[in-house]
Design goal:
This protein has about 80 residues and is mainly alpha-helical. The protein contains 4 helices and no strands. Helix 2 crosses helix 3.
C-alpha cells in the first residue's frame, strides 16, 4: 500500500506544497496553511487506525463540499451584480 505522502506526491498542487516551508514569509496565508496541513498529514496520517483516518477524511469531504457550495454561491452573486 502506498503511503499518504506518495499519494500526495502524485498530485501537482500537493507535491509543491510538500516542498514548501510553512514558515517562509513569502508564502501567502493559503499556501502556508496548505504546507502545514499536508506536512502534518503526510507525517502522521499513516500511523492512525483506519477508523480514525476515515473520520478525518469524512470531515474533510464534508467541509470541502460546504466550502465549494459557498464559493459557488458567492460566484453567482458576483456574476449577477455585474449584469
Amino acid at each position: 500500500m502506498k503511503s499518504l505522502r506518495d499519494k500526495m506526491n502524485a498530485d501537482p498542487q500537493l507535491k509543491r506544497a510538500l516542498q514548501w516551508n510553512a514558515d517562509d514569509p513569502t508564502l501567502s496565508g493559503r499556501e502556508a496553511a496548505l504546507a502545514r496541513i499536508v506536512t502534518s498529514l503526510s507525517t502522521d496520517f499513516d500511523a492512525l487506525d483506519g477508523s480514525h483516518q476515515r473520520a478525518i477524511a469524512d470531515a474533510l469531504v464534508a467541509q470541502a463540499k460546504e466550502t465549494q457550495e459557498a464559493e459557488s454561491y458567492a460566484d453567482r452573486l458576483i456574476r449577477r451584480s455585474r449584469q
